[in-house]
Amino acid sequence: MIAQIVRRASSPGFETWWRRVESVGCCAHPIQLVGAGSVGRRQVAWTRCNNRRATVCPSCSDLYARDTWQLVHAGAAGGHHNVPNEVAARPQVFATLTAPGYGAVHNASGARCHPSSKRSVGRCVHGNTLQCNVTHSIGDPIVGQPLCSQCYDYLGHVLFTWHLPELWRRFTIALRRAVAAQLRALGMDRGSVRVSFVKVVELQARAIPHIHALIRLDPLTAPTTQGDQSYHGPAATRGGGESRSGTGGSGWVSPITAGELSALIQGAARQIRVDVLADGGEVRELRFGTQIDAQPLSGDAKAEPVDTAPTARLSPRRVAAYLAKYVTKSLQDFGITARRLSIEAITTLDVTEHVRAVLTTIAELAERVEPMAGIGRWLHTLGYRGHITTKSRRYSTTMGALRAARAAWTRRQSAKHPERQGDTRADGRYPPVTDVPADLDADDVLWKFDHAGHTSAGERTLVYSAALQRIHTRRIGLVEARCQVRDQHGDPPGGHDG
Predict the structure, then answer these.
(1) Positions of the region Disordered (predicted)?
(2) pTM to 2 decimals?
């Protein structure tokens, strides 16, 4: 690898190659596209892999986290990305829906894991001790492992993971019905309030997912994004210049408070039940765990100390940073890559016995339970088949809109500072290629996939290191900027932006 790094850094085409690397933000797995322009000249363009996993591409995952922060914060605080300021005054609740307990596991709560009694040491039916007097740190590899693997309900664990999208779907239906019932009790139209949300799925240390969601109440006819024609009638003049209704403006006051919304969320989550067919014809009842947290948001971001925990005092900035932190995580921490796995590969993986037992249970369900035959395709996600991040349509801006705005900005910058690289040969193994000229519209070229990733581990190491250095430098700059603001004004900005 060192020889590959030296060979690339000393090659005549290094400057050209490095400009291409910087053009995609030091992406560790770029996609190379080739095409022919109007004159038939071969053109080459690089684009990002846009992978959210930090272990795959730190540059793209950092960008994905920042986009997530923008999406969540715009929907919580408003005032940017065409989201009106009024959304900050609407009832908002940060909810966490966890999985039930399927067996005692080691935890990192800051106290002794499972303290034993002075009189006796408890043991399970298999003879294993159910006590642990060690205070585990968060990075301890034993955290999340069951105290007795034979007592742990792996079947229930896998069934919950597989059916979590259905549990969430039923929860949203139950919450909307609960809001409608609350409105009827107040003598109001049941359809006068709309429920909007954004959610992020996080994998706990015991290798089971749970949900973080930011839920907001909106007036039915109020636009969430300014200039969105979908909120105007089809017969409106000039493509949506006339609003359907005059209600739902900046003076709207929700008939349901954030505290009442929190109670409705907890009630809806506790009533959800899903009956599924398990191995041997057994019917299992699935539900959310008893640890359901629902905390109202505070709109005063400046009053929050920077170093407080996310659950100490919630603000839009704090919650946005909290959710953005989890979207870049992957199963790499459990020893599983992002590629699909085969059942035969389970015994060869370098994973804990707990994770191996989860994978084995998935393989058995795929073979024995016909309705769950497709679960075998999701071994690489430990049985979870949903998206990591989802949102309701009118909650905030979209990832596509953020990427389109960034692409437009990049094109404007390129037009201001055109740089032609010309034909260049990177080294003996590379064909002569040409970057897209500034005066050529990339949309007029028929692009085709050429290859993905760098050609050697040495090149990838160079790019990977540069990406980490850029991320570190940017974060240091953010900290220094906040310190200067705090010193000048004596008022902390309230949280970080991921």
Answers:
(1) 225-251, 410-435
(2) 0.82
